[in-house]
Specification:
The protein has 141 residues and is an alpha+beta fold. It contains two helices and six strands. Strand 5 and strand 6 form a beta hairpin.
């Protein structure tokens, strides 16, 4: 994977936040594959499949959508040629003025029109040090 691919991947991940925050749901296909899976089950929300389901899900959430999405710490964990596993951190300002932190686990795929997110799994950050402090003292590390 060359520098151009890395930059394009980072831009796709960043652009997704801008598209959502601007309400430009017709642009979701510029960052997601047509059959993308968007998994928010760790946050108690739906697993959606396909760009149309993502649009519908955002509209269903309505005023409960976060006011702003911020993405940072983009890390390409595995480069598989035409696929890349990418982790990033996200901050969301919610409609009740709270800040939430999540980790995005993404699978990006190179398509004929550039890199697109094929799968996104969102995991809320619920405990310091990834829950290490909650682990039993005799638990294997």
């Amino acid at each position: 994977m060359d520098t151009h691919d890395r930059l394009e991947i980072a831009e796709v991940i960043a652009r997704q936040s801008h598209i959502i925050d601007r309400g430009e749901l017709e642009m979701l296909d510029t960052v997601f594959t047509a059959d993308a899976i968007y998994d928010m089950s760790a946050a108690g929300l739906a697993v959606m499949k396909g760009v149309e389901a993502l649009r519908d899900g955002a509209l269903r959430l309505g005023a409960e959508n976060p006011l702003a999405h911020h993405v940072t710490n983009v890390f390409i964990a595995r480069d598989g040629g035409d696929e890349a596993e990418v982790d990033s951190k996200g901050f969301m300002l919610t409609s009740d003025d709270r800040m939430r932190s999540v980790t995005h686990h993404d699978l990006l795929r190179r398509t004929t029109v550039g890199w697109r997110i094929a799968r996104r799994t969102i995991v809320p950050q619920g405990a310091p040090l990834g829950g290490l402090l909650d682990a039993p003292a005799d638990a294997e590390q």
